[in-house]
Design brief:
By secondary structure, the chain is mostly beta strands. It contains two helices and 25 strands. Strand 6 and strand 7 form a beta hairpin.
Length: 315
Amino acid sequence: MCVVIGGVDNRAFQFSTFSQDEINTWINLLNNCLRDVLSVSISGAEPVCSGGQFSVTPLPAGSSITSWISDNLNGLTVTTGGYATRLNNFSGGVNLTASGNYGSSGCTFTSTKQVFVGSPLADNSTLIYPNGGRAVDPVTLLPNTVYQFNSDLVLGASSFTWILPSGFSFVSGQGTSNPGIRTSATYGNYTLYCTADNACGSNWTHSLGIIIDGSCIVCPRIAQDDKPPAAETFAKIALYPNPVSTELNIRLTAPAEQEGELSLIDLYGNIKRQGIIQKGTQWITLGTSDLFPGMYVIKINDGSKEYYRKVLVQH
């Protein structure tokens, strides 16, 4: 096989001749080289609080690292030996790139890794909120009720510290970005605090004001006197499954003795479903697959009383 690299006056120069076996050998070497260098990666302890050692693995005998590069020299420098140093109290992501020779094969490699430097990137613009209530502050919630809380995404955070008001308690997810929290049974004004944490330190998120008074933005007024309904009003309605994903079943304890009205209300008081309960009806089915995840309230008016139940939609 001939390899032609140029020509003058339509006359080709034959630079060299290679056999098919030689070409196959080179192709195999190239494939092996690509396979080997693609397996290379940068490793090291994160986050970088003051300094830390980084390395490239796996590297066979005969390998050498020829350079380390940081793409933010104001925030992180790195020596030729791979030791990184944090500068100027910087916090954020930095790309580290290592280049070198892979073994004795003649292959070269370049590997890049984004490492996190410093404490988490949380500040007063980082919001905490119950499901469906982002950017509502203060938010009004029901007493003695479990809500799923969330924090905006915080780069560099490995855990979260939630500081609960008096009377509030954790139900699940303590130390995470989305704990389940039970509100106080006592009406009043409260403040919820949160920090995003990692090994380098902590930063505060925006705090959240909470009003507990029995009526709220995230659910409709549950009684005309703003007090929780008596337990017997709940006994008349059974919901399943709860949480629900695609289809909610509602069962009355007995067939309706007269016409009534059913409403499904979202966290902002918007009616998402509404219909008439015909006399004699005991079972009702509602589709929920198109609803946003979050807490909703079922309201049933049987003509003389109103009954309320909460349902959680999850997909």
